[in-house]
Amino acid sequence: MDNVYVTATFCLLVASAVVLSPLPRYLTSPNARIALVVVSAASVVPLFFLANTATSSHPTMASSDPPAPIRPTPSTVAQHLAGAPESWHGKITADGPHPPEADRYHLYIGLFCPFAHRANLVRHIKGLQDILPITVVKPYPKGDESGWPGWAFPATADEYEGATPDPLFGARYMHEIYFKANPAYPGRYSVPVLWDKNASTIVNNESPELMRDLQTGFNSLLPADKAAITLYPESLRAQIDAESVWMQRDLNTGVYKAGFATSQEAYDAAVPVVFAALNRLEKLIAKGGGPFILGKQLTELDVRAYATLIRFDTVYVQHFKCNLGTIRHDYPQTNNWLSYLYYHVPGFRETTDFRHIKENYTKSHKDINPRGITPMGPWPDVEPGYEPDLTKVRVGGVQMPQVLELEAKIEPKM
Questions:
Q1: What is the pLDDT of residues 324-366, one digit of tens each?
Q2: DSSP 8-state class, residue 135
Q3: Which fold has domain 234-408?
Q4: In CATH, which superfamily holds the domain spanning 80-227?
Q5: TM segments (predicted)?
């Protein structure tokens, strides 16, 4: 249609040129000029008529197209971490709309994401790999500042090692999964997402809830030894609940508050909070006696802390500028604990992919790292060697006065 209007415009220009330009002597008479203008103008009229007819002859073409996806509402990192505008909070229960069944559910994750890492860790610890398959999005790009178009799936299995095409819908982007559950979904397209194939909807996209619910949701389908595994034992629930508050607030999301600070003042306020939490964790591990945070029992606290700390020296020290110290040099108890989980507890190393982790942060945060260069270190990714007698391991920490002051305020008191 644009070509019709272009041609009409050209004809009008020709008519104007006829009037204004010098012509051969035999066309210089007034009658000759008028005749040329009439001919040129006459050629324009059918073209405008054609354009108008072509446009009006298909009045329903635009309305037959599917509506454009609603882009997410731009939000700050703090707002996003506080919760999406809309979330799904379903559970796998025998008496609910999402009963436990093999091959009914699908988990979408990113290997780079610490929050999705929690859900995948529980999946491995509980032995749900055959019951609950996963699809892994690529670690970058993630879209614009408001999250559009969001995480992408590879077109083929070998496009990016470890990332997998979407087997359910052949989707290109994670937002397509969200729009299948709610075409007007207004938030960011985060992972993890638990999808119910029978109900054709999202069950849950909140990582703390998935970390808890995946421990019990499929127990009826598991062998007795796996069904018996819990990361939230009755005897430790009160302590897990209490310690989870500061861990989530100051450590799990604290690194993001520091990394995405948009002013010097915000950064200076956020970083000491992170290291106050690390100081607290260092003492908590030493007090428990190992090998886990609360002693002999692997709990949700280990899953929460691991998903953040396995990324700490690798990404958060340099990329998020959380550089008052490192795990491997300033926190011997925590480093010892991290090494034990990574090298000796099934599920932890298998769910950790350092290429996905490094390239996600360094290649998708253009405002922080505009050239997208990924650092090589540190080496090794996790230091090997575990000392089971924690009395032989120094209790470390960052002794910066501001950090110590914030540490003393953490509740509950030790």
A1: 999 999 999 999 999 999 999 999 999 999 999 999 999 999 9
A2: E
A3: Glutathione S-transferase Yfyf (Class Pi); Chain A, domain 2 (1.20.1050)
A4: Glutaredoxin (3.40.30.10)
A5: 6-27, 34-51
